[in-house]
Structure formats: structure tokens, C-alpha cells
Amino acid sequence: MKRISLFFLFLILLLSFLLGARMVLSGDFFYLYDQARDYLLVQNIVDTRDLVLIGSHSGLSGFFHGPLWLYILTPVYILGSGNPFSFTYAYVGLQLTTVLLAYLIGSKLYGNKGGLLISLLIALSPATWSTVQNTIGVNVVSLVFLGLFYFLIKFLRGNKNSFIFAAFFAGLSLQFETALPLILIPVMVIIFLWNKIAIKNLRVILLSFISYFLSLGTFILFDLRHKFLMTNALIGVVKGGIKEKGYLEFEDRIIAHVNSLLAVYESILFNQNIWLIILMVIIFIIALILIHRNNDIKYRKEFGFLLLFPALTYGFFMLYSYPVWPEYVFGLLIPVAFAFYLALITVWKNSFGKILVIIFFVITSVNVLGFLQNQYLMKYQPVESAGSYINQLAVVDWIFIDAEKGKFGYFVYTPETFTHGMDYLISWKAKSYPDKIPTKNKELITYLILYPHIENDEGAYDFWKKNTLRTNSQILLTKTFIGGITVEKLLINKSEPEVDPNYYQGLLFR
Q1: Phi, psi at residue 410, to the nearest 5°?
Q2: CA 283, 304, 316: angle at the middle one, nearest 5?
């Protein structure tokens, strides 16, 4: 029996890998702002050998993620000598570790078959496999939530000490994301108060507080050193917001948050096939009816808890004045997957339920096979996007080949003003050309790297050159690459003024 389970687990892991790794297997991934920012931060840790208390900036002004994601990437950076593509191995490893841990925890809670089915549900979710090609720290939250819900379920089953460990994982999630982990604070209090035995145990209460704040140690030290910068940022979010940054009035907030909540429940589906959505809803409804009628169903209590957990969190999200983007709530895939597993085994006891479950997995299988066929049986089509790693690397390679020995300047135009991606690629590639020295200053030969401008903004490049670079120098050569990135090679006039200092704000990602 154990060998059979391991065989099926291997197949699930292989399926998960194939779903997410097509672009990586072709030597490419999406190299975007978030990835480049993280690489630069890791590079700084390795070069300066300074320990950091915070990671990258979060979506809340004045609030930061923790440094743990950077420390996870640090050995990858060292082993890969800074090669950006080496980080994709960590991305794939994170995906497979999440699926593997889902099996281990599912098996602990629901037996071997439960572990296999839960790991399959998580492996099939786009929240797990679609992020491999551009993984960022937030994708670790699903892994952390597996630990969180293991201990929460044990707590619901009567093990009061499990809350101590659940509190630690709740705090740990703040290392990788901000919105959902902050909402966890009142949610965890409600869950704790639900257990009438635990609320009378001072030892559990004290150790839970210690466990939670232990996981936030770096945040606490940083806030104490910076006059409670992050605490004040949170207070500002609760008080109000800025419409230009996406602030939602309460009426609009309800609609936006409800749609986001529905997307959380749909995240368990392989794709947004209307029949899969209908079947999922019917399965949940029938499971609720059967559980309501039969008080003897084994997992009755935790099914309701798992099913309603996302709704409870979104009740508190109503205090959050901005849109709740999918990446904020990746972790909620875990309670939905557990709840759907319990719904499946509940309706399976009913003849009509068996038919529904079989149809659900048949449709899912057809969609999965069709997806894999398109990915692997047809010739891979390279991504014609400026965000493609290969396309951006081609730009850098060309510049270094074209440049002569000595210094050359470069400047980067992006609509969002951040230049991290090209800065990191050039600094890494420069190690292979010790006789060529790139600088972010005007040199005799200077390259302008122009990412595609936003739609209907054809004058963006000329405006940027005139007002930011303050140049009208002769263009010696122009070359456009796949993805729409254009490089202009300039012969700089020595009498030109310095670049506007605001150009360098793109380097400030703290």
C-alpha cells in the first residue's frame, strides 16, 4: 500500500512540475520588477555580508515584508553565481515542496488517500503551478498556511497546545505577505475564543503570544529602530486612503471584495470552466445538506470551519480600503482545498454524489490533458514580451558585444520608472567582460534601453530624453529586439548637462 501511495505521489509531483515548468524548461521565465528587486537585495546581502531586518517593500506605504524570502534565495544566488536563471530552480522547488507537504499534512490529518487527494487538488490549482515562471516571496504563503492549518485543525479537534504552533505560523506568514497575515490577527483571536478549554489556560495564552511575536522578531526590532514606521503605516491604512492609488469607497469595496472572495473559492479549479464552477458549487451544497442532516459525520465541525474561513477573513477585509489582489490571498487556497476534499468524500457516500465527483474529475482531466498537449506536443512559441528573461538578456548581450573596452554609459526607460531588471542583468553580465565597465552616467558612448511605452504615449521617449536625460546627442545606431525593447547608441556631447537626479529614484526600492 505504501509503495502504491508513493507511486501516485510521484505522478502528482510530476504532473505539477509539467503544468508549471514549460517556460522554464525552454530556458525562459518572466523577469519582472519583483524578481529583479529581490535579486538586487540578495546581491547586496552577499556583497556586504550585512544581515537585514526587513525585506522588500509591501503594497502598504511604509510597511515591509520580512527578510526570510531573501535568505531563502541567498544560497541559490551563491551556488548560481548570481545567474538570474538559477533562481528558477528555487521556484520549481517551492512548487513541488508545497505539493509534497500537502500530501504529508493531508496524510497526517485524513489518512493516506486524503493526503493524495489533497496534494492533487493543490497541484492542479493555478495558484500553485502558474506562478513558477515568475515566482515571488508571496508564493511561500501557501506553504506556510499548510503548517498553519495543520495546527488549527488539531486545535479544533481538542489539542489546545496546537494553537501555540498555529500562532507561530500565522506570524511567519507576514514574512512573505502583508494583507492576509494582518487580517489573520483578529481571525486567530476568534478561533482561539471558540475553544472554551483553551481560553481558561493561561499557559497556552502566554506561549501563543510568545510564539507569535517570536516569528515577528525582525519586524519588532526594525520598528523600534525606526520610530514605529510600520505601525504608523498600518494606522494610516485603517483611517483612510488615496483614491489615486486605488482607494475604494465602501459600496465599491463590497462589490470588489465579494468578487475577490468568489475567486478564492474558484482557485481550487484547474481553470475557470463554467461546468467545473457549477459542479464545485453543487458538490459543496450537497455536502452541506448531508452534513446538516447527519450529526455523526466525522469531520462535520472542521468542514464548516474550513469552508467559512475565507469568508471570515473577507469580513475583516472590509476594513481594507484597496482592492484585494489574488496574490494577497494565495494562502486561502489551503482551507478551500481541505474543505473541498471533505466535501468530495462526503458526497461520495451518496449515489448521485459519486456521479458528480466522477464528472468533475473527468472534465478536469480533459482540461489538463488539453493543456499539456498544447504545452508539450506542439512547438514551443517563445514569449514576445519585454518581460521575457531571454529577450532582455539578448539586449544586454548585444550591448556588451557592441561596446568597446573601457567605460560606457547606459540609461533605462520603463513606464513605471524602476530600472532594477536591467540594472541587475548588466551588473551580473559585466563579470564576464572585465575590460568593459558599464556606468549609470553619461559617457562618450551611452546606450539608451527603451522598454515599450504605454499605449497612446508615442512621445514618451522624446519627453524622457529631453527632460530626464537632458540630451539631444547624435544617435549612432538603433536596434529593436523581440519584445519591443529598443536600444539607441548615442555619441554624447561633452557640453550636455547632468541627468535629472530624479532618474535615480528608480534605484530606491526600500
Answers
A1: -150, 145
A2: 110
For 31, list phi and psi in degrees, rounded to 5: -100, 95
Q: Which residue has the cell 516571496?
A: 137
**pLDDT tens for residues 196-214?**
777 888 999 999 999 999 9
pLDDT in tens, 82-111: 999 999 999 999 999 999 999 999 999 999
How many other C-beta atoms lie within 10 A of the C-beta of residue 75? 12
Q: In sequence order, which ranges of 327-419 are alpha helices (DSSP H)? A: 333-347, 351-372, 389-402
pTM: predicted TM-score of the whole model, two decimal places:
0.92
CA dist 264 and 311 (Å) reads 10
Task: Give the distance from CA 439 to its chain's centroid.
Answer: 32
DSSP secondary structure string for all residues of 439-501: ESS--SEEEEEEPPPPTT-TTHHHHHIIIII----EEEEEEE-TTS-EEEEEE--TTPPPPPG
Dmax of the chain from CA atoms? 86
* Sequence-separated (6 or more) residues with CB below 8 Å from residue 194: 156
Query: Which segments of 23-157 are extended strands (E)?
Result: none
With 0-12 CB in 10 A as exposed, 13-18 as middle and 19+ as buried, what is 403?
buried
